[in-house]
Design goal:
Layout: E1 5-10, H1 17-26, E2 31-34, H2 41-55, E3 61-65, H3 68-73, E4 78-81, H4 88-95, E5 99-104, H5 107-114, E6 120-123, H6 140-150, E7 155-158, H7 166-171, E8 176-178, H8 180-184, H9 189-202
Parallel strand pairs: 1-2, 1-8, 2-3, 3-4, 4-5, 5-6, 6-7, 7-8
Length: 204
């Protein structure tokens, strides 16, 4: 099963979109998602195309959140759908064979998502988080361990993960980890990526 390692989600970044995309490519980040809920379609397309021009032909896969139409327009590598977004089979009518990831927030949702044959699932929030306007109930590392045990696709651990609690997430077996604020609210992006990569590789 493929391992992504650090999964970067761009939401209200401190650095510019193109600089972040360049840094992800330089650091060999495999997954880079654009998740901006408050931008116009025009802005999203402009930023999406900007990021795509940086990531095209590199190891960094570009993921568009929520919007199959914009994922298709920007020629993204992946579409990511949440629980309230359109069903995967409807999204396929827009994005064709593009790879698709699904968010899940409970054991039941994870099982249901896997029945739809996504390319990966997100599972969380592992810990309490305010990165979302309406956060879901934390699932904790025990449930994460269960999902990692039955999932036949990569599982991205997400939600409230910071350096002070990441060891428990890695010890639960997570090999793919998303930390939103830790990477978005800093100018030391490269330093934080290197530190986290070292931490993940030490635990292998």
């Amino acid at each position: 099963m493929e391992t992504f390692g650090i999964y970067i989600i761009i939401t209200k970044p401190h650095l510019s979109y193109s600089i972040l995309a360049e840094k992800c490519v330089q650091q060999g980040i495999k997954m880079l998602q654009l998740r901006e809920k408050n931008l116009s379609d025009k802005q999203l397309i402009k930023i999406g195309k900007e990021i795509r021009s940086v990531t095209k032909g590199t190891v960094t896969n570009f993921v568009i959140n929520d919007r199959p139409d914009i994922a298709a327009i920007c020629d993204a590598d992946y579409l990511h759908l949440g629980q309230d977004d359109m069903p995967i089979e409807d999204a396929r009518k827009i994005v064709g064979n593009m790879k698709i990831g699904l968010s899940t927030h409970s054991i039941e949702q994870a099982k249901e998502a896997l029945s739809q044959n996504p390319d990966y699932i997100g599972f969380g929030p592992i810990y309490p988080t305010n990165a979302k306007a309406k956060p879901d109930k934390p699932v904790g590392t025990e449930q994460l361990k269960q999902v990692l045990g039955f999932s036949n696709v990569p599982v991205i651990a997400i939600g409230g993960i910071f350096p002070e609690n990441i060891n428990q997430v890695i010890e639960a077996g997570a090999k793919n980890i998303a930390m939103v604020r830790h990477f978005m609210q800093t100018e030391e992006f490269d330093k934080r990526v290197i530190e986290l990569n070292e931490l993940i590789s030490r635990k292998k």
